[in-house]
């Protein structure tokens, strides 16, 4: 299979490119990036061709593209790739407003290409095992959930709202909301949120969301960039699921050793799942075997819809109904 990458703006592009170069039968044909220095450096690092214009890359014989551009550019890049007949894996958040995301989904359907959203946390072993436990009813009827996605401030274009569409609430709501929706096959009906700037002068860097689902479950989510620069890793993803017959706690980044060094201080040595590689393998399998994407464009849209409602709730200081 022949794959291209559009933009290296997002840090996940590096892990995706590494995965492509390690998977047998897959070729990274090229990297398109309007930041020439960044694009050429990535192309040299991953032993592939560089394109300044994405249309030049899309004219190549590609099976699919991975889009890892700034959030604001996901819309135009997905539309261009769909019209070129290329299957698409798009970095989260899928988009920054509902109208554009709906157009992305509709255009991919119109041109017969697959649109998958990049939610690698679904490929974490503990998340997958917990999903099975919930689906099998071992916890009884689910009553509530409590999630966290607390990270370090990524800086750069992430803190420029004109490029990102939002700060920590946009960046860190979508992962955990996707897992909640997936576990319960249920949709969020109401969002109440509070957000503020405690660690940044330009954009929201902390938020607390309260969610209600159409199956009666309520959930809370701490979505923040509250980890400082000395934290051992970029952040966390945790989820507690409370049912009538039991409770389960998931730490998606618990597969690690604590290392204390005189030279580097306290660090984590991570030995666990490579979620990004498993995401890429899943996408390639879906394209190769002509299957519906495991995590669809609609999944991506629904997760962002909750983040957008959270911002609306913060602005209006009231719960926001969905659907």
Structural class determined from secondary elements = alpha/beta
Within CATH, the superfamily of the largest domain carries the name Dihydrodipicolinate Reductase, domain 2
Strand content: 25-35%
Q: In the CATH hierarchy, what is the class of the largest domain?
A: Alpha Beta
What is the chain-wise order of helices and strands? EHEHEHEHEHEHEHHEEEEEEEHHE
Q: Which stretches of 5+ consecutive residues score pLDDT under 50?
A: none
| Largest beta-sheet details | 7 strands, mixed
- Known CATH architecture of the largest domain: 2-Layer Sandwich
How far apart, in Å, are the first and last alpha carbons?
39 Å
What does this protein look like?
The model has no long low-confidence stretch (mean pLDDT 96). Strands 12-11-7-10-9-8-15 form a seven-stranded mixed sheet. It folds into two domains: 2-113, Rossmann fold, CATH 3.40.50; 122-273 and 304-321, 2-Layer Sandwich (Dihydrodipicolinate Reductase, domain 2). Helix 8 (168-184) crosses helix 10. The protein is built from ten helices and 15 strands. The chain has helices spanning 12-22, 36-45, 54-58, 74-83, 98-110, 125-135, 161-164, 168-184, 275-288, 297-316, and strands at 2-6, 27-32, 49-51, 64-67, 87-91, 115-118, 142-152, 188-196, 206-213, 218-227, 238-243, 247-251, 256-261, 265-270, 320-321. It starts with a strand and ends with a strand. A hairpin with a 3-residue loop joins strand 13 (256-261) and strand 14. The longest helix has 20 residues, at 297-316.
